[in-house]
């Protein structure tokens, strides 16, 4: 399952050259579909995860002739009567993550918008953390092993990411497009911006870590961030389309 999580994240964050390799009929049939053949008696969770990946890639790459291999396999499986898992739009992460660049000295501590709350109240940004004199992971040519001090620092920073993500998700559960208060909309915009900045470092850290526990946690956080961004962008789009009726 970890290998599938890594593969999914690479597809979301890498470019066309990687997509060409993953979307070939040989890879999809020879590796992914082969893993879920009945003779291997695969667990249901593995079976559904692989089918979900094939389905999402086929949907995303259907308009790209150079990536048609996965589309062919998906359509062929459907013709054979194979049932694919239901697609949850709120849980669906985008395939393409925009390229970004920031100074290497930055860490995850991007002025977080404060901690958890049960109601979407306007919140002032938390006090800025002290300057980072020792980033959790220094740029390197390959994976590195974190020292105990670096592990503690990274744990604190991941807690900040999760805290902001929790507040953002709670607010999105409670606000209604076109009917939200101006201060709630402003706080959501702040959270969206902060979480976007934090995601940059999350993605940069993944290939630098040797510890699989941290790597898996970062991959999960990246997926959770993408899911929250989809929800926010849908909320923002609907709010703008209903702007004449927005209640302040």
TrEMBL record:
Domain GAT, chain residue ranges per copy: 149-237
Biased composition (Polar residues): 96-110
Pfam families the record matches: GAT, VHS
Keyword Protease among UniProt keywords: no
One term of GO molecular function: clathrin binding
Gene Ontology CC, one term: endosome
Biased composition (Low complexity): 114-131
Name of this chain's protein: Target of myb1 (Chicken)
Native source organism of the sequence: Iconisemion striatum
